[in-house]
Amino acid sequence: MELFVGKILPYITVALLLGGITWRIWRWMIGRIVHNITLSPFPSSWGAAVAWILWQIVSFWNIFKFDKPLWVGAWTMHVALASIFGGHVLGIATLGNQFHLLLPWIVTEAQSEAASNALGTTFGLIFLVALLYLLYRRFAVEKVRVISAPSDYLHLLLLILIVGVGDYMRVFHAVAVEYEAARDFMLGLILFHPGPMPVIHETGLINWYFFVHFLAVQIMLIIFPFSKLMHPFGILWNRWIYNRPYPEPPMGLPGVKLKL
Amino acid sequence: MPKKIVKGQELSQPARASARVLKRLYVREIPDEEKPAEALKWLDYYRKDRRSLVMAMESCVKCGVCANECHAYLGTKDPNNIPAGRADLMRKVYKRYFTVQGRLFGNLVGAEDITMDTLEKWFSYYYQCTECRRCGHVCPFGIDTCEVTMAGREILWGIGMIPDLQGAASAAVYERGNQGNMTKQALIETHDFLSDEIEEERGFRMEFPVDKPNSDILYVPSSADYLLNPETLKGACQFFEYVGANWTISSHMTEAGNFGLLTEQHSVQRELVERLWRTVAELGIKKIVFGECGHGWRAWKMYTPTLTDYAIAGSGYDYHNRVPIVHIHDEVAAYVKMGKLKLNPRDNRLAPVGKSITLHDPCNYCRACNLIQNLRVNLYASVPEVREMTPNGEKNFCCGGGSAVLYDDPEMYELRGKFSLKKVEQIKATGADILCAPCSICKAQFYGVLKEYHHLDIPIQGLIDFVGAALVFKGHRQI
Q: The pTM is what?
């Protein structure tokens, strides 16, 4: 079990994730943008169109304008997700020294690690609360419940499982995974020398919390390209169709006596 | 049309085109047992053809933002009228046959087999969507359910499920080049009558040239103007006469609308496009000016350049150097902005001093064609008082009849009333005396539904009507 999940499955996961994303986007690109069906008011140039798309991605502007209660949950959840993703990559790669490396003359190594821990725990909890709120909304708000499929709930539950276990490891230090242990494990995978999974110090046995966390993340990454979780790519490809400039023909009627 | 009952749910559907109409449309009705398989073939074709459809099928996360922004859902509270839910009618089938998750997990991800019930639902709900694109405007991903509705209607068309209204109008297009099935004689007689009216009002006569060779400008009115909105024709005529244009109306192509865009883009839309270019070549036209029609203007402005390979003048893909296609309100606004038109808003036959006018932004102008500010330039210059609706511009709500959901069958008429609830709320909130709706379908919807269903007695006018009536002539011409 540990051998499969810790040493074999990660390679399958990455292959399916990258291959799946490429395949899905390739599928999207088969169909043409037949006509210019941009939404008006038209962006004045391609620069303005791209700026508008980026602004939508960063701020969730349309949700903010048209559904504020959703925005509170959705935007917070995605910001927490982005922070946690960045924290995992940077924190594990630099052993919690990312802030020290960024601003060495202001932040000491100890402060950086403390900040990394505090931010990780905070965003982890915010993420969990936001996900629970979104799950509640899907159950409670009729307009959303009636259009939801079982998979919509399952995606949320899977994320709640991942972040729930992750938060548990953060909050209860006995089962925590240290930066070094996580880094060594990930480094082993990246260098194609997979090592053993992190263990619990007191007992020396495998950390089953980490095991569940790691497995659930892999399940999420495997279904990512084949489900609605692809929406971060979808927004780019979709808005590329609907937010684009349109050259207007010049005004002025030919052959008239009263000229412009 | 008796109500269809699918799985205990009553479906409102428009009356279907008869076999005779289908024959005139060159459509073969497929037997019911073969319809699902045939529909699936069409869906496969459209998903490979249009990226907009694939993205709409694959990008929705069911966040529900669109629900309370759709006038159809606000009016009916039917979950299948939530844009995401309406697209889901097709998405379920799409998932089942064209995605990995649907093939593996079926119901778990909301995938469903295609059956005759599915198609009956499509026929009901894709003809309840008015293709107003408000959902596309509010969707965080920019998913435009209009594209799904269009594809749904085209698939249904392909298997012979066509509403009588769209079918008859399209058959008329094949035969006469307009949806009203008017002959050249009818055009000329209407023109004569309108010329008489102008003579009575202004004291001098203006003619409507028909098929005049070597004209510079082709004016394409909506055929509904001949039946319902004579003031709109008069307004356009007065503008062209005022600027001294060498203009004409064609009897071969007298249709600013284009139901092909809304229901069948392969043959019906192309038929009118082909008629347009043939007219342009025959009459030596240098610029085409379209009249008031919302969806039509979208079809001509956004689709015609890419639909046609027919280079009238110039070469290459630079289609604006060919014969440009413009809207009358863009042209009028250019004149108004330059101060070239003498308009007197205090002396407007259609909008007397003391009356206030509210502007209904037609969906296809404001969300598809960038025609928001120019409408206001023209309106503010021609009427004494304007009261804006909230929300307006690109956030405006549909009239409830968009994409020719103008059915008279009792249950569909009832739905039209419900679809316009939000609009009526908006109109009442302004307290205006006159409603300006510069779109033939909006006018047709308001003429019927406002008075009969909502008991709101308010005069309805187009926008060029006001411009024409406010023009101050010196003698026969300004110049």
A: 0.94
With CB atoms and an 8 Å threshold, state whether A56 touches B140.
yes
**Burial class, B38, CB count within 10 angstroms (exposed 0-12 / middle 13-18 / buried 19+):** middle
Helix (H) or strand (E) holding B460, with range, is strand B460-461
Residues from chain A contacting residue B132 (CB–CB below 8 Å) = none
* Chain B residues whose beta carbon lies within 8 Å of the beta carbon of residue A251: 326, 330-331, 334
Written as six digits, the tokens of B92 are 């379920």
pLDDT in tens, B27-63: 998 999 999 999 999 999 999 999 999 999 999 999 9
Amino acid at site B299: A
Smallest Cβ–Cβ distance between B101 and the set A147, A226, A241 belongs to: A226
ipTM associated with this complex: 0.93
Nearest CA-CA partner of B61 in A219, A148, A39, A59: A148
Which of A37, A54, A246 should we substitute to test contact with B (largest number of B Cβ atoms within 10 Å)?
Answer: A37
Domains of chain B: 4-162 (1.10.1060), 178-335 (1.20.1050), 341-470 (3.40.50)
CB A252 within 8 A of CB B334: yes
Q: Are B354 and B429 in contact (CB under 8 A)?
A: no
List, as one string, the DSSP characters of A8-66.
IHHHHHHHHHHHHHHHHHHHHTTSB--S--PPSSPPSSHHHHHHHHHHHHHH-HHHHHH
Give B-chain residues touching A256 at CB under 8 angstroms: 216-217, 243-246
Residues of B in contact with A39 (CB under 8 A): 133, 136-137, 142, 144, 367-368, 394
Distance from CA of A187 to the nearest CA of B (A): 32
Tokens of B103: 């093939």
pLDDT in tens, B229-244: 999 999 999 999 999 9
Q: Shortest CA distance to B276 belongs to which of B289, B264, B265, B263?
A: B289
